[in-house]
Amino acid sequence: VSPSEMLSFAKSQVDYILGDNPRATSYMVGYGNNYPRQVHHRGSSIVSIKVDPSFVSCRGGYATWFSRKASDPNVLTGAIVGGPDAYDNFADQRDNYEQTEPATYNNAPILGVLARLHGGQGVYNQLLPVAQPKPVPHPKLTPTPASSSNPITVEQRMTDSWLNHGRTYHRYSTIVTNKSDKTVKNLKISISKLYGPLWGLTKFGDSYTFPAWTNSLPAGKSIEFVY
């Protein structure tokens, strides 16, 4: 892959974030005409002291402002939210923190990308040497095909693998699909020997269920989670 191809790909990803996507939604708050209006952010959600000088406690802010369905009174200009799922689904709801929270791990890396794109197509010669990591063997995962009588299929694939202190870790993406002709309203997923966080599902006791922004899986539809 040539440097120009990598730069073009990076630009395409930024264009997607800024609105060149199937939803025509900008995931940078305040950019464009269609951007998230209910950001999962306390400072954005609570009205300015200049408008209402009343004291807002920690619990009071949650009780009074968190569940409001109105747009944020303060626009968090330039913040990048979590964004859509793998199928371009996005729910602009304040309690949908997986998609509407402007976390630092979204905003920090894009600063470098935008700075490089601002520099244009010029080649930078003063690059520091980079130590190439040793390749990590990726075990082949063969998904078990679901039987014709099983209305729910689960497809898992490994998306990353790395070494840390001599131990190998893996990241997986899993797609759950409703193959039946009915809507699934009760879902219980168990994962044994789980290390690290899981995104895209809601913890429910010793297992997981639908994410916060939905409570069912219609026929023929899928949801994806990552761990």
UniProtKB/TrEMBL annotation:
Q: Which Pfam families match?
A: CBM49, Glyco_hydro_9
Q: Give the UniProt family note.
A: Belongs to the glycosyl hydrolase 9 (cellulase E) family.
Which top EC class applies here? Answer: hydrolase
Q: Where in the cell is it found?
A: Secreted
Write down the species.
Answer: Coffea canephora
Which Gene3D superfamilies is this protein grouped with? 1.50.10.10
Task: Kindly give the InterPro entries that the UniProt entry links to this protein.
Answer: 6-hairpin_glycosidase_sf (IPR008928), 6hp_glycosidase-like_sf (IPR012341), CBM_49 (IPR019028), Glyco_hydro_9 (IPR001701), Glyco_hydro_9_Asp/Glu_AS (IPR033126), Glyco_hydro_9_His_AS (IPR018221)
One Gene Ontology cellular component: extracellular region
One annotated GO molecular function is: cellulase activity
Annotated active site: 40, 92, 101
Keyword annotations for this protein, in alphabetical order, are:
Carbohydrate metabolism, Cellulose degradation, Glycoprotein, Glycosidase, Hydrolase, Polysaccharide degradation, Secreted, Signal
Q: PANTHER family per the record? A: ENDO-1,4-BETA-GLUCANASE
- Catalysis: reaction(s): Endohydrolysis of (1->4)-beta-D-glucosidic linkages in cellulose, lichenin and cereal beta-D-glucans
Q: Name one GO biological process term.
A: cellulose catabolic process
The record's EC number reads 3.2.1.4
Which residue ranges does the record assign to the Carbohydrate binding domain?
152-227
Instruction: Tell me the protein's name.
Output: Endoglucanase
Q: Kindly report the protein's main subcellular placement as a broad class.
A: secreted
What broad taxonomic lineage does this protein's source fall under? Eukaryota, Viridiplantae, Streptophyta, Embryophyta, Tracheophyta
